[in-house]
Amino acid sequence: MMYLYNTATHHKDEFKPLCQEQVTMYCCGPTVYNYAHIGNLRTYIFEDLLSRTIRLQYPLKHVMNVTDVGHLVSDADDGEDKMELATQREGKSAWEIAKFYEAKFWQDYDALHCTRPTVISRATEHIKEMISLVKTLEEKGYTYRTSDGIYYDTSKFSRYDALVGHAHISGLQGGARVEMSDEKRNPTDFALWKFSPKDKKRQMEWDSPWGVGFPGWHIECSAMAMKYLGHTLDIHCGGIDHVTIHHTNEIAQSEAATGEKYVNYWVHGEFLILRSGKMSKSGGTFVTLDVLKEKGYEPLAYRYLCLGAHYRTQLEFSYESMDSAAKSLKNLRVLCRQVRQAAKETASETENSRAWKDKFTAAMQDDLNAPKALALTWEAVRSAELNPSEKLDFLQFADSILALDLFALPQPEQPLPEAVQKLLEERARARAAKDWKKSDELRDAIAQAGYLVKDTPQGQQTEKK
Ligand code: AMP
Ligand code: ZN
Q: Which ligand is nearest to the CA of 30?
């Protein structure tokens, strides 16, 4: 039996799929106007744990969108489209930008051993479905027109507060008055279709019954989720930031259009944060997987770090915790390889190993308790209760969920990143010129890049911090 914390009920609910033959799950995917940061990637790792755990019991249809149009800078439906803004930043077309960052996204996704979705749906390839959903909402009287688009009238949908509660919505109603555009009827109303600006040619725009323009971000997910998964989905996932606006709006659009329940289980992952605050793409303060790789960490060390915290708790990122995750993964692999050698590569399933696998499964099925599953893996590998072949059986099973490459050989020592190499050369020159101030400044810069430098009679020696 699997239990999942459902944002809609505020409970850990027993998971009962609509149909035993196929569980349906929709996950909000990346907005491809920039690199994914490791906070975004934390969310995909949690969704992967969910997908792997569901697949222990049921076949799964997993749909993920790629937002390549329509996600505006401000959640209040103002400001520029993030894609169009990126064209100004990078001097490329919006289509080139989407293609580039999407390809990069899948590289990171694969490197973290996240299982690819069954269906990947790009927003720009589903404009027809979005227009048709807006038309249905129009026919049912949920929309109105302003000078810049077609809007959803949230006051017409009585269950608008279903996900976040009445207090929150009335807070928004009260608080947002100042920023609200004159033409919106309610502060919580949102754009279904935006018109292209009159004074500027957009790169991404389409004809519609209401005028040339582009879809709102929320309608994208409703249209694509229902196209591939039907009117009612078993599970819808995303990061916690999506609860108040994006998912609340998805419910309003979908349920108003179909008259049926949209999602049975809403599952949200907490944020990865920095000590200095939020990690956000728009704020510019973000760490990517490439940055971690440049500093010598393998992507799976980051996956290990994420598995050590429950998906519903905030995780504060630091390089100290990355170091300790990398070290733990290395040590766990040493033990796993020793087990495999002792078992002469032969795993045997016995009542004993089954009991351990059951404990592991129970932890994962208890609202994805990955920290407990990881702790059980450490316990099993050292346990006297299991012989080596039983351990190997357990570990192979555990790794089918943890996906940490538990039997991988140690990574060869990484060569020094080019940037650090350059700093070291510069520092050697500064020291030769007896410029101690510069030498110290460069030592700090090298430390910032993750390396300690020692001066020895043989010259500078580095060590990873
Ligand atoms: P985006 O590409 O910005 O649309 O976000 C992709 C996914 O990452 C969404 O599910 C977001 O909720 C999630 N997300 C955004 N920021 C963070 C963060 N700091 N930590 C964890 N997940 C995040
Ligand atoms: Zn979405």
A: 1
Q: Which residue's C-alpha comes closest to atom 11 of ligand 1?
A: 239
- The average pLDDT across 35-45 equals 97
pLDDT band at 177 (very low <50, low <70, confident <90, very high): very low
3-269 has CATH 3.40.50.620 classification? yes
Q: Between 419 and 24, whose confidence is greater?
A: 24
Q: Give the chain's mean pLDDT.
A: 92
CATH of 277-402, one of 1.10.730.10, 1.10.150.80, 3.40.630.30, 2.60.40.1120: 1.10.730.10
What is the CA(281)–ligand 1 centre distance, in A? Answer: 9
User: 84-113: per-residue pLDDT in tens?
Assistant: 778 878 888 888 899 999 999 999 999 999
Q: Which ligand is nearest to the CA of 240?
A: 1
Q: Which residues line the pocket of ligand 1, CB cutoff 6 A?
A: 28, 30-31, 39-40, 42-43, 67, 238-239, 241-242, 271-272, 279, 281
> Which pLDDT value is given to residue 172?
66
Residue 178 confidence (pLDDT): 43
Pocket test for ligand 1, best of 43, 67, 242, 311 (most atoms within 8 A of CB): 43
Atom of ligand 1 nearest to the CA of 30: 2
Quote the percentage of the chain above a pLDDT of 70. 94
List the residue whose alpha carbon is closest to atom 2 of ligand 1.
30
| C-alpha 241 to ligand 2 mean position (Å) | 11
pLDDT attached to residue 175: 47
Exposed, middle or buried by CB within 10 Å (0-12, 13-18, 19+), for 112?
buried
